[in-house]
């Protein structure tokens, strides 16, 4: 093959092209990215979180070990009305322990420090010393501390536990005297969170996401954003402020959201990794029946009643004030400042709606929200939705509405087969460039029914991403979905990054995202590809994308070969200016049965140079200017 760059046809492309989409699906938040180690710390698990599971209630993950003590749940005089349930331990004779199982256990690492905290009170005023232990399956104490509870009123108690060994453990709280003890918000965090944040994120997982170098993060969904009924719509105000005052909620993926990972933490994570925040809020309608895969239960036609839309729109405007408002002069800016962030978060993008059915109910509410944001915050870039791509009426209607209102950007979703992606690499080449509306490809992934993601799906995504770079003048942002999945708790497959309590297992597709994220450009340099074999099927399995990063001046050549044979390629870079003779090359290649890792080396290059592309491979060559 020959690939000849045509620098005279260069065009600017979006600098936000590659981002990440975080949704609390597959235990991505509690038990996942959120570093809290205690499951159901607030005793707010509710039978409605998971229909048909008789163990799913306030005592979930908790148990009493030993005798002469009782463990019940009460709601009288709670720590906060949003957090009504708490544990009551009645100790007749010391010895028994209240045990928490964690999320599949509590993984300790030798020498690491863990922050233990809880709200507690002794209603009878009789002080009680507690031993707090982390115990492994054999009963060995792997870390411990103690503290005394003496307050009749709710009070926070804190201690630090150092792990004596690396072990999988559970928590035991062991009162040393008889009497009644009330407990709530029982929490254990590693001190070593991502960037050392309190109430922070699991370091290895957060770093794996950061390594993609996502230019934005969309959150909190997906279906989680609009919920599967009016009561299940994600309300950002319930997710900020003191943890004990946040309002937990059923997660429509069949579990519980503690909201410990809430809007403050999402914005902070974005800031920590230099990504633009892209919060998505419901367009006044919940996930409507089939748009939400039909089987999630609770599906509900209809939107927020018109009598309540004013308040709902105000909540959205308040979010913008919370993110960007002055810390002293605005009500919501003050709330942000009190939470520890006086400086504005500089929110520029706000998503309204997620993969909705584009009904009259939707259109009416979306229009109201869109107009209200435009009026109060004309600089805000509203990202609308055009429903799932299915060539059906929603997609068409969604686009009609976007055109009519002049929505600056719309969110498109498609989960498709490798064949679909191969045959649709011209999807945005055909885009009507006279339109004002840009595209956010907010959810996409290559799916092979019944099979895991592999090099074939990953290279299909690499091919498609080449077409997205080529169309980076209209496609402003993209994000693979879903991002995270905890092993044994997965509702959706495939996902980009699998994990358990100790390991992070990125898929081959992850490395494609990372290579694109780390080698993004701001200028697209078109190239002419000539293949020896002129068959269209062959042509569709080979792609190149050449971009220049204006910050470094580097030119990046990406070459994708989804053919079962090696392709000798001559790259002609004439006209791009003088370059360094040695360049970094990264190659991701393997058989469909492998889970390969990218391999880096350095190669000699010239204005024209040869490069052998292995069968089934993705090659990235990063060239520095001379
Ligand atoms: O990414 C998983 C789900 O797919 C999202 O929640 C939803 O938007 C889409 O249907």
UniProtKB/TrEMBL annotation:
Q: Which domain of life does the protein's organism represent?
A: Bacteria
What's its EC? 3.2.1.55
Keyword vocabulary terms for this entry: Hydrolase, Signal
What enzyme category does the UniProt record give? hydrolase
Domain Alpha-L-arabinofuranosidase C-terminal residue range list: 442-617
Q: Does the keyword Hydrolase apply?
A: yes
Reactions this protein catalyses:
Hydrolysis of terminal non-reducing alpha-L-arabinofuranoside residues in alpha-L-arabinosides
> To which protein family does this belong?
Belongs to the glycosyl hydrolase 51 family.
- Designated name of the protein: non-reducing end alpha-L-arabinofuranosidase
What part of the entire protein does this chain span?
193 to 818 of 819
């Amino acid at each position: 093959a020959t690939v000849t760059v045509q620098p005279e046809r260069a065009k600017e492309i979006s600098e936000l092209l590659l981002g990440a989409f975080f949704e609390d699906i597959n235990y991505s938040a509690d038990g996942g990215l959120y570093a809290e180690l205690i499951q159901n710390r607030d005793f707010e698990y509710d039978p409605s979180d998971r229909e048909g599971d008789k163990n799913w209630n306030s005592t979930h993950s908790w148990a009493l070990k030993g005798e002469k003590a009782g463990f019940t749940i009460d709601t009288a005089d709670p720590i906060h009305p949003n957090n009504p349930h708490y544990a009551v331990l009645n100790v007749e004779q010391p010895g028994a322990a209240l045990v928490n199982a964690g999320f599949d256990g509590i993984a300790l690492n030798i020498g690491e420090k863990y922050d233990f905290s809880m709200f507690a009170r002794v209603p009878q005023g009789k002080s009680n010393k507690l031993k707090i232990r982390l115990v492994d399956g054999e009963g060995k104490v792997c870390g411990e501390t103690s503290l005394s509870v003496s307050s009749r009123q709710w009070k926070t108690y804190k201690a630090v536990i150092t792990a004596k060994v690396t072990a999988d453990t559970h928590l035991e709280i062991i009162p040393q005297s008889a009497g009644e003890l009330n407990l709530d918000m029982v929490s254990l965090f590693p001190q070593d969170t991502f960037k050392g944040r309190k109430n922070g994120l699991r370091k290895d997982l957060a770093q794996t996401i950061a390594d993609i170098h996502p230019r934005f993060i969309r959150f909190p969904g997906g279906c989680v954003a609009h919920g599967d009924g009016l009561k299940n719509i994600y309300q950002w105000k319930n997710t900020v402020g003191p943890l004990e005052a946040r309002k937990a909620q059923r997660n429509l993926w069949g579990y519980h959201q503690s909201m410990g990972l809430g809007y403050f933490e999402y914005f902070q994570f974005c800031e920590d990794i230099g990504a633009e925040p892209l919060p998505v809020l419901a367009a006044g309608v919940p996930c409507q029946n089939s748009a939400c895969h039909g089987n999630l239960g609770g599906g509900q036609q209809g939107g927020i009643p018109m009598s309540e839309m004013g308040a709902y729109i105000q909540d959205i405007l308040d979010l913008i004030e919370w993110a960007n408002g002055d810390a002293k002069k605005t009500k919501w800016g003050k709330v942000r400042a009190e939470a520890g962030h006086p400086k504005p978060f500089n929110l520029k993008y706000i998503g309204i709606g997620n993969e909705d059915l584009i009904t009259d109910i939707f259109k009416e509410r979306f229009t109201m929200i869109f107009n209200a944001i435009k009026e109060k915050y004309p600089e805000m870039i509203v990202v609308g939705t055009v429903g799932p791509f299915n060539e059906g009426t929603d997609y068409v209607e969604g686009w009609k509405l976007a055109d009519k209102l002049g929505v600056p950007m719309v969110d498109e979703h498609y989960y498709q087969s490798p064949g679909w992606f191969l045959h649709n690499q011209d999807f945005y080449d055909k885009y009507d460039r006279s339109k004002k509306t840009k595209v956010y490809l907010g959810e996409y992934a290559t799916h092979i029914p019944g099979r895991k993601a592999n090099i074939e799906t990953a290279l299909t995504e690499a091919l498609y991403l080449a077409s997205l770079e080529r169309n980076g003048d209209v496609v402003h942002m993209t994000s693979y979905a879903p991002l995270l999945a905890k092993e044994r708790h997965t509702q959706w497959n495939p996902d980009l990054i699998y994990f358990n309590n100790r390991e992070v297992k990125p898929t081959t597709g992850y490395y494609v995202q990372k290579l694109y994220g780390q080698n993004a450009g701001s200028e697209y340099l078109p190239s002419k590809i000539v293949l020896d074999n002129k068959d269209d099927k062959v042509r569709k399995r080979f792609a190149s994308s050449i971009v220049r990063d204006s910050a470094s001046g580097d030119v990046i050549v990406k070459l994708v070969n989804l053919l079962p044979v090696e392709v000798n390629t001559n790259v002609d870079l004439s006209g791009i200016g003088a370059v360094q003779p040695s360049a970094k090359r990264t190659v991701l290649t393997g058989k469909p049965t492998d889970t390969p890792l990218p391999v880096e080396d350095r190669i000699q290059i010239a204005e024209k140079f040869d490069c052998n592309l292995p069968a089934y491979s993705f090659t990235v060559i990063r060239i520095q200017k001379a």
